[in-house]
């Protein structure tokens, strides 16, 4: 993208976000003004601007204690704001239709707008609270896959992705994830990218997190591929963390598991900040040294890349999409990705694809209409 187009895109996005934040703030103020006619608009505006910008402020070089508090407010506000926006728009559309159809008398407009706005606020709060609760639970999903090159004995591959360590609530979730993995007796554990969120130093207690990962009980080990958020200036610290956590990272490399199948891990194609000089290879180069008499399983973080694989791969394990994380985000992931979630196979001879919605959340510690999940793929 040219510099001019990038600047234009930034201006458009900033304009849309600014207008949305203004719209939500104004609707909240109108509801409060109806209840409290003497409310000071200047004080409300100052408080609202600080809250609205808290997500950005939390990523600035603030003192540690302040950075954590502002980041916490920002992450939660962003999730709440999305539903404020959706429900306020729905309420205003209903009012507009009511006025056009002359169902709302002119002298009842202000009160109707208040009650509609209040309903929007209450619905937003209810969905937000549910989303926080739902993000603290883990769902177990299982698929039974008959590979094109079959195994002599079935194998239980446990798949997780998108832990996003460093985001709100991510480290607290590790214990539940590890206990969940151990409860289903994996033969092998695959982590399909986005273990971190851009910066290793966002972890509060990396030693505890590493110890929890080392407690994973897997017959043939724990392997990972890198996602777009697993790079940047702290890439070397991330790799050191994974090494001491007994997680083997495959950077366009392969291993043979129990003399039964080949596991390949791909570098993500668009890392944020780069992978310390590592560059993604073309798949023919990656698979050239592989003994393809074995079934081939590929960890590929982004399912947008599954079109690169032909009959030389049997199973692709992916994440990245979060299945939209917040409703109605799943509508858009279905439009963007051929396989945004679940089991997919283009035709009988194509590789199977399993996409997980992830074991963690990104940016906002909220899930609505989706779940954190641990996936068990029984391959035969």
Can you walk me through this structure?
With 380 residues, the chain is an alpha/beta fold. Helices cover 42% and strands 16% of the residues. The chain has helices at residues 3-35, 41-52, 54-57, 64-100, 109-134, 170-183, 206-214, 235-244, 283-287, 329-336; strands at residues 138-145, 155-160, 188-192, 222-225, 247-249, 253-257, 261-265, 296-299, 315-318, 342-344, 352-355, 372-379. Strands 1-12-2-3-4-5 form a 6-stranded mixed beta sheet. A 6-stranded mixed beta sheet has the order 6-7-8-9-11-10, with no helix packed on it. Helix 1 packs across helix 5. The model has no long low-confidence stretch (mean pLDDT 94).
Features:
Purple Acid Phosphatase, chain A, domain 2; 380 residues; six-stranded mixed sheet; elongated
Dominant shape: elongated
Q: How many extended strands?
A: 12
The number of domains: 2
CATH class designation of the largest domain: Alpha Beta
Provide a concise account of the structure shown.
By secondary structure, the protein is α/β, with parallel strands linked by helices. 42% of the residues lie in helices and 16% in strands.
Q: What secondary-structure arrangement, pairings included, does this model have?
A:
Layout: H1 3-35, H2 41-52, H3 54-57, H4 64-100, H5 109-134, E1 138-145, E2 155-160, H6 170-183, E3 188-192, H7 206-214, E4 222-225, H8 235-244, E5 247-249, E6 253-257, E7 261-265, H9 283-287, E8 296-299, E9 315-318, H10 329-336, E10 342-344, E11 352-355, E12 372-379
Parallel strand pairs: 1-12, 2-3, 3-4, 4-5, 7-8, 8-9, 9-11
Antiparallel strand pairs: 2-12, 6-7, 10-11
Helix pairs in contact: 1-4, 1-5, 4-5
